[in-house]
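Researcher: Predict the fold of Lipoprotein.
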Amino acid sequence: MPDWSRRRALHALGTATAVALAGCSSSDDDGFEEPPGGGRGDRVTDYELRTVRASAAEPVFWKGERPADGEPSVGGHAYVATEDDLADVSFGDGGPAEELEAFVRATDYGSESALLQQRPVRECYDLRFRGVWREDDGFQTSFCSYLRPADVACSSGDRQTVAVAIRFPFVEDDVTSMGSSWSSSCDRRPDPVVADSGGDES
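Model: Structure tokens for Lipoprotein follow.
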């Protein structure tokens, strides 16, 4: 089946599934709240968000040396609290990486900080940011995935990179923990939080 035909079929199936779930889902994408006892800290509501999408499964940013070809390279996070932290982060080439870099460099370090995350996604899917929680020793974030519009050209077998930068109006001195939940559907609660390892998500 050609990619465009498969794409439309997937979109139709996703739409039908969303309608079926609507009657039993108690969550709303725009009003999502973590249920009590979710094991998270305080939800952060004051932040600025920038999301970019690279056209290939390559890192948008990295800390230290750039991963060599063949090494796991797409995924992970970086918390930037100072100019010294920023000096240890490099950004790739191209518009998406440059856009993310400009946003991160515009942060007023000293009174603000930035949290960066990236993850590979299948080309026919996109990621939606659902929230961030502040804990004593770090942060936890939540994302979900959903099918892109049917008129977006894509190949079901290819992958791209989605990266986000979250700017906070505060600075954490000692961030040692970072976790994320990645739900395969935006119509249900996110999966349990796990350590940020940068694995693949459909």
